[in-house]
Design a protein that fits this description.
- Two copies of one chain form a homodimer.
- Chain A has 195 residues and is mostly helical.
- In chain A, 67% of the residues lie in helices and 0% in strands.
- Chain A has nine helices and no strands.
- The longest helix of chain A has 24 residues, at 50-73.
- Chain A is elongated.
- Chain A binds a DNA duplex (30 and 30 nucleotides) through helix 1, helix 2 and helix 3.
Chain lengths: 195, 195
DNA sequence: CAACAACTGGATAAAGCATATCCGCTTCGT
DNA sequence: ACGAAGCGGATATGCTTTATCCAGTTGTTG
């Protein structure tokens, strides 16, 4: 491969990172090419389709987050570990619409990215279940509560307008607080995952 | 207007109600026509475009919800009134994707529906502000917290898969609980609407 | 039961959008 | 300076939604 071609490849990945972060996964490869200052053909020469570029763009970042999740499994207090992990991971997600879309079920279902995503979710559910075993959870809360929590915080982040960028912390705090065991709390409605 | 034409009009509105409820506002008038057992032309003869049909479909329902919000303003305990109202309104929303999309900022911006939506939001914010004045709110919570709450519960409702249909109650409970004043609670991060 | 206006159906035009390709031209490396 | 590798971006393709049109049907009225 020619040296300039390799350079352009990097340019494209960088452009993809920026464009996907701002406009989400529905941005076109035309968008990315333009943002990289290159032609569409150049992008298609290097990446078969959007999925391939997305994989190149998000592989590292997702793997890093997955590593955090694995590390959290080694912590003593499962609930605190989960809370810290979520805080860190969501901090990344605020500024990255593409990453958020990737974490929502359904996106890039065929790719290796989906596997990493599944691993992260699995770790979170394990942590929550372990927190339950440690008596740190409010009655009735289970690993199945992870997906709704993520969806809710994602919704806050996706809110349009001039809301402060750390608004999501407010609600993450509220929700995690609500899942924690407290003395004399009323039962929680709803069934988690049908059980 | 011929009698059969009026009958078809009603059929179309009914079909629109059902189709929008299930598939959301992005369903096409073709979808609605087919579901009504009529041709597309018939639908376009009676409604200029999707917005016009949506207005006919949702006007009553939205007005009813707005009335609930007005009634809530007359209650003594603002926080409880708000909680009851949200519970009632969201109960309607679960089974109606179109209604949910309508309540999210941005949809049908030009129509009279948008005005009603704004009125409902305004009432909610008033209630929350009043609850604050009554000392029922956790420090720092304001009327601006309404939009994020709605967005979060909406996200839970939009969750794919076989989650139980009253899962949203679980999270509404958690969030409202988190907004309520409790003795000795830590401060809430985030700034609401920047203030 | 005409006879006509109102109404209907749905094929299809029009427009928009994202994806992917192709090939004449440029640039690199030797 | 030559050939291979790479580039650009106009454009073909395919899909989706919106909206129209008019030949044929149906209701209504006298």
């Amino acid at each position: 491969m020619r040296r300039d071609a390799e350079l352009n490849r990097q340019r494209i990945v960088r452009a993809g990172r920026e464009v996907f972060a701002v406009r989400g996964l529905q941005a076109t490869l035309n968008d990315v090419a333009h943002h990289a200052g290159l032609g569409v053909g150049t992008v298609y020469r290097k990446f078969a389709d959007k999925g391939a570029l997305a994989e190149a763009v998000f592989a590292e970042e997702l793997a890093e987050i997955a590593a955090w999740a694995r590390d959290a499994l080694a912590e003593e207090e499962a609930f605190d570990a989960l809370a810290d992990f979520l805080s860190r991971a969501l901090e990344r997600a605020v500024h990255n619409r593409g990453l958020r879309e990737l974490m929502r079920q359904g996106a890039l279902e065929g790719s290796g990215l989906a596997r990493v995503r599944a691993e992260i979710c699995q770790h979170c559910e394990t942590l929550l279940a372990r927190a339950g075993a440690q008596g740190a959870l409010r009655e009735g809360v289970t690993g199945a509560d992870i997906a709704p929590i993520a969806a809710m915080i994602d919704a806050v982040m996706a809110l349009p307008g001039e809301c402060p960028s750390d608004l999501w912390r407010r609600y993450l705090t509220i929700v995690l607080d609500g899942l924690r065991a407290h003395p004399g709390q009323p039962p929680l409605p709803g069934a988690g995952d049908g059980g």
